[in-house]
Amino acid sequence: MENQRYLLLVEDDPVIQAGNKHLLARFEYPLRQAFTLAAARSVMAAEGTPRAIILDVILPDGNGVDFLRELRKTSNVPVLILTSEDTQEDILRGLTAGGDHYLAKPCPPAVFISHVDALLRRSAMMPEMLTFGPIGLEPSSGKAYINGDDVVLSQKEFALLQQFIQYPNKLLFAADLYKKVWGQEMLPEDYSLSSAIYRLRKKLAASGYTITSEYKEGYILELE
After folding, report:
1. Burial of 81 (C-beta count, 10 Å sphere; 0-12/13-18/19+)
2. Which helix (H) or strand (E) holds 190?
3. Within the chain, which residues score under 70 in pLDDT?
4. Are the beta carbons of 76 and 126 closer than 8 angstroms?
5. What is the Cβ-side half-sphere exposure of residue 212, based on CA atoms within 13 angstroms?
6. Which of 18, 42, 78, 108 is most buried, by CB atoms within 10 Å?
7. Which residues are within 8 A (CB) of 126 and not within 5 positions of it... i.e. 6 or more apart?
8. Whole-angstrom distance between the N-terminal and C-terminal Cα of the chain?
9. Residues 100, 199: Cα–Cα separation, whole Å
């Protein structure tokens, strides 16, 4: 199991880094600091998925929002965007990319701490591992396993499998699945769900379980 106990602060301003490091000392988690996106990736590669990330947008080697979009392909780790980019368009872009909270800096220390506290509460509610038979999922990292072996899933495939594991042997209606995973109503000619189910079914072949279809209704995770 990866170490998920640290906080990752991604910020290129040494003064803000020092101030936030002092504020974050009140939490029980160790802090890892990164002044660039490359350093952030290096920390995560070495230490696994953090408990939460405080992320700047304008960084020397790239854009934090682009980094977040990349991260969201494989991980649900809670992220607070802390940046000087504060227009409505900036905020919408950051939240749409997968940010959980968005704060413009400078902000009052008490506000910063309250947002980090909210991130950690969300993180504490996230189970470290979901299991069903030989299938295992790590919600924070987006990693999936079958019989202990890694299985590469897209973010949508992972989210779907998480729904099925929570409700095995139960019919999950297609419209409900689509709304939970895609975040919007399913249109009649949208085949995104059925395509993702097809790919996921193939990746579950070694588990002994499959996803069966109920015509025009939904899908069930059950033994083959």
Report:
1. buried
2. none
3. 1-4, 124-127, 140
4. yes
5. 11
6. 78
7. 76, 139, 140
8. 29
9. 28
DSSP codes joined into one string, 11-26 = -S-HHHHHHHHHHHTT
Q: Is this prediction's pTM over 0.85? A: no
Which phi and psi angles does 5 have, rounded to 5°? -100, -5
Q: Cis omega before residue 106 (within 30°)?
A: yes
Q: What does the pLDDT read at residue 125?
A: 63
The confidence score (pLDDT) of residue 26 equals 87
* pLDDT at residue 195, rounded to an integer: 94
Compute the distance between CA of residue 201 and CA of residue 209 in angstroms, rounded to an integer: 9
Alpha carbon distance 180, 177 (integer Å): 5
Token reading at 122: 């969300």
Secondary structure (3-state) at 184: coil
The alpha carbons of the chain give a radius of gyration, in whole angstroms, of: 19
pLDDT of residue 2: 43
